[in-house]
């Protein structure tokens, strides 16, 4: 008996958009992880296969892979990464592993996303996939808080971490924040059915609760900055409406659901005390920031080498640094994790890759942001011109692709803001790579022959 798929099913698979492969990478982040399990996450493995799939498609279609501008912007970090690896004094296997990871996150996966996403419909598909993942992880995290089965926080197992576990307490916060940014962009856009925008707004409000229960100050700050920027980019009236919606949601969360617990209030208050009375986690972070700067001063141009921060940390850190952070709960036992990074992407790059690496990587991100904002301004200008021509007629279409621009620019703004308080690491890093790819698509796809599909 033949096990071949029916011809109609095979045809449907062949007609799936290439961006479906990227959506599958996002969906795999919903899989639970065994406590203490090492190795690559399935989403990381699939992301490597997606890069290979993209390369095969380019060879079969015999088309130019990237425009000159896209190649320069996305390829800018490659020489600096190679230089840092060659000039490092650490173990060669560590340099190769660090080079591969950085190329995956900052170059290869974003380039694959740029090439596989063919139009605005694909951007919305991936945005809704991120929102769906965020709702799943957020629901798991909220259940953990309510039932006291989350990660340990101040002696209680109440920290919402989703399926990422206590070993990656920032994973759920990252996913929920990025989902909220995508939902906000979809809600503020003026194209598409109204019911889709209302649904997106409802998802954004729903994600506020698990974001609060993540107890992640960095994610709170980055999300607040990004959503405010999205609202201002969408228009002043929409910014006022979003502010009113957030205020109403805050009243419901605090008054209706009792989210204003003492621990949450203390966590919010600690944001304003980082200079006067910092807790131990903030002290550790300041100490590691100072150690990263000291490493850069030792080797200012090329840094101490990829993955070199842990090896050089004790030489440069002061006695104020604690021996590690305590984790536990969410299905895992008590573990004292060593502090292996400064929790600041810019200082990590400065320490490990030197000034050359930081200029190259930050220059690539800044170019994406400038090009993305320029395109978003052009879309808004075209939308205003279209509404002027449509005056006197019923309705009038909104700016085509405004929601995609708000998503692309919003994801990049969130990532650049969050990098002040975090760096790459853990399974959620592959989502960072996908989001950089969506930002690159918005900023560069018009120069790479983007389709015009709605």
Distance between the termini: 43 Å
- Beta fraction: under 5%
Any low-confidence stretches, pLDDT <50, length ≥5? 390-398, 447-454
* Largest sheet, strands/sense/barrel: 2 strands, antiparallel
Shape type: globular
What is the residue-averaged pLDDT? 82
Write down how many β-strands occur, each being a DSSP E stretch of 2 or more residues.
4
Which structural class is indicated by helix and strand composition?
mainly alpha
Question: Over all CA atoms, what is the radius of gyration?
Answer: 22 Å
> What portion of residues is helical?
55-70%
Strand order of the largest sheet: 1-2
Number of helices: 18
Tell me the number of structural domains.
Answer: 1
What is the helix/strand order?
HHHHHHHEEHHHHHHHHEEHHH
Model description:
Helix 2 packs antiparallel against helix 3 (42-61), helix 14 packs across helix 15 and helix 14 (280-298) packs across helix 16. The protein has one domain. It has 454 residues and is mainly α. Mean pLDDT is 82; it is low at 390-398 and 447-454. A two-stranded antiparallel ribbon has the order 1-2. A two-stranded antiparallel sheet has the order 3-4. 67% of the residues lie in helices and 4% in strands.
Write the layout of secondary structure elements.
Blueprint: H1 7-14, H2 19-28, H3 42-61, H4 68-75, H5 77-87, H6 92-116, H7 120-147, E1 151-153, E2 156-159, H8 169-188, H9 194-206, H10 208-213, H11 217-234, H12 236-256, H13 262-270, H14 280-298, H15 309-316, E3 325-329, E4 332-337, H16 345-389, H17 402-418, H18 429-444
Antiparallel strand pairs: 1-2, 3-4
Helix pairs in contact: 2-3, 2-7, 3-6, 4-16, 5-6, 5-16, 6-18, 7-8, 8-9, 8-11, 8-17, 11-12, 11-17, 14-15, 14-16, 16-17, 16-18, 17-18
């Amino acid at each position: 008996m033949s096990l071949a798929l029916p011809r109609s099913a095979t045809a449907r698979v062949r007609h799936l958009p290439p961006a479906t492969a990227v959506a599958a990478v996002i969906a795999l982040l919903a899989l639970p992880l065994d406590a203490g399990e090492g190795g690559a996450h399935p989403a990381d493995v699939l992301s490597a296969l997606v890069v290979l799939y993209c390369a095969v498609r380019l060879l079969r279609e015999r088309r130019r892979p990237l425009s000159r501008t896209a190649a320069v912007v996305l390829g800018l970090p490659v020489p600096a990464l190679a230089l840092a690896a060659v000039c490092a004094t650490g173990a060669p296997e560590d340099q190769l592993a660090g080079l591969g990871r950085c190329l995956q996150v900052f170059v290869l996966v974003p380039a694959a996303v740029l090439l596989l996403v063919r139009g605005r419909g694909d951007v919305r598909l991936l945005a809704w996939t991120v929102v769906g993942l965020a709702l799943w992880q957020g629901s798991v995290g909220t259940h953990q808080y309510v039932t006291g089965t989350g990660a340990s926080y101040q002696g209680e197992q109440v920290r919402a971490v989703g399926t990422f576990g206590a070993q990656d307490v920032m994973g759920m916060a990252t996913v929920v924040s990025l989902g909220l940014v995508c939902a906000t962009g979809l809600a503020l856009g003026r194209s598409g059915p109204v019911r889709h925008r209302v649904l997106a707004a409802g998802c954004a409000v729903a994600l506020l609760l698990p974001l609060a229960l993540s107890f992640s100050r960095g994610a709170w700050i980055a999300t607040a900055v990004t959503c405010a920027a999205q609202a201002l980019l969408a228009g002043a009236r929409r910014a006022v409406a979003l502010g009113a919606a957030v205020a109403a949601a805050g009243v419901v969360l605090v008054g209706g659901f009792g989210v204003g617990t003492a621990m949450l209030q203390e966590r919010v208050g600690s944001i304003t005390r980082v200079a006067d009375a910092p807790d131990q986690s903030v002290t550790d972070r300041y100490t590691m920031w100072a150690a990263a700067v000291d490493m850069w001063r030792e080797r200012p141009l090329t840094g101490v080498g990829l993955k070199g921060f842990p090896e050089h940390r004790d030489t440069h850190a002061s006695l104020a640094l604690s021996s590690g952070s305590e984790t536990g709960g969410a299905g895992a036992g008590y573990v004292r994790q060593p502090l292996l990074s400064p929790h600041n992407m810019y200082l990590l790059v400065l320490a490990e890759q030197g000034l050359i690496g930081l200029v190259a990587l930050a220059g690539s991100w800044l170019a994406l942001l400038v090009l993305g904002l320029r395109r978003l301004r052009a879309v808004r200008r075209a939308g205003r011109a279209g509404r002027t021509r449509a005056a006197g007629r019923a309705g009038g279409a909104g700016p085509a692709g405004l929601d995609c621009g708000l998503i692309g620019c919003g994801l990049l703004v969130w990532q650049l803001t969050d990098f002040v308080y975090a760096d790459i690491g853990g399974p959620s890093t592959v989502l960072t790579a996908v989001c950089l790819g969506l930002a690159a698509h918005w900023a560069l796809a018009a120069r790479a022959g983007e389709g015009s599909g709605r």
